[in-house]
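G., before I forget:
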Amino acid sequence: MAKHLLVPTLALAAALVCSLAVHTQGPMPGAVYDRDVKGEKPRPAPRRDLAGIWEPATAGGGIQGKGALAMDSCKRDKATGRYVVQQNPPLTDTGYATVDCLKPEVEPPYTAEGLARLKAHKPVEGYRMVPDAVNNDPILGCDPGGFPRIVLHNFRTSEILQTPTHMVMLYKFQKRYRTIWTDGRELPKDPRQPAWTTADRLPPEPRWWGYSVGSWVDDYTFVARTNGFQDDRTWLDNAGLPQSDTTEVEETYHRVDANHLELSIKITDATLYTRPWVALDKLRLRLQSPNLDIQEMECSPSDQKHYYEIFGNNTGLAPDAGK
Amino acid sequence: MKKAGMRMLGVAVGLVAVSVPLFAHHGAAQFDVGKKVTVKGAVTEWFWSNPHCFLRFDAAGADGQMVHWAVETQSGPNILPQGFSKQTFKVGDEVTVTLEPVKNGRPMGRLLRVVLPDGSSLPLAAADAGQVPGNSPQN
């Protein structure tokens, strides 16, 4: 072979080998979600590190129809794995009969006001769900779902960016983000008049996503607290559990190993609940390839309007339907 | 069909059945859960959106009158790995739709399976869906 052809020929051969390797090893990193593999032994957890793209380890594990307190699934038939559908489900306080397996095993500890606010909510998910035509869920008009709803119901693929001063949480659902400050600032002292206690603070301003501060309690456990929310236009979850401007959320991230993170959420709100309660208990997340491209899941008011005109507004039940 | 193929089909059917309550923006309040209807008609609109897409098609009713159907699917990002895309249907396509109807008797429901003009059907089997870039069949 002529010398001048040697280099290009070798380069072509190398490219072919690489190409074959890609094809024989399956999809490129980030082309599909990484899932747990039976028998795998992840490396130890890195110290004080949450950075990366995270996805519920169990497919769909962060997207449940029961709402807070109930991240496990409905009852399933053991043989087929399919949901058990009740033929004659009971009526709920919304006037509609829905699949009873959606009811959480434990109810949150409502105050009288909390229960009243719950009953004013007509969700399209959870055991009190109603048809689209009669719901009053704020996010279905594309209002912000806020925090912690984005985690308690729709925790989809999310990325955590970690800097020396803060964490940024990037959420796929509705393409939202929030900041957890780690620079030592304190949580707003009055959740109804929230503002940072820094020298150049702006006037108080309640927020859909609240004010968040966080710190490491050990090398593998990061705890964030959030308050300063808007009014009750934000719900805690898709099942209509209430939230208020006195809600405080404690968010715990525990790095189990190099591939896994566990996320828990505790709710404190003396207006709505008689005691603090755990709304999410160790949701297991799996680290994804840094090459994973997170899809858009944007809420478009014009799309929603068309959907409701053609479909949602026409789903109301006949008076005796479902009873 | 070979055993492996049957297993794959079982997985696919299971995923479709399970994914409905898990991933839609709403639950089953308006649907007659477990009931299935199959209708053949011509596409009038394919609306690609979040949190739900929907397909509208016209089909002749039992009395010969044209019935205007609307069936929803999950959101665009959720059904991409099942083989759907914004270009899946065009107006005039002849399709056969198997759907779970709404309880109120209107010609509406949620799409369970659709046979396209070329004879192929959606959603894809789980194994094929897993190879769609950027997705897993479950998400």
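Chain B has three helices and six strands. The first strand of chain B starts at residue 37 and ends at 47.

More on Monday.
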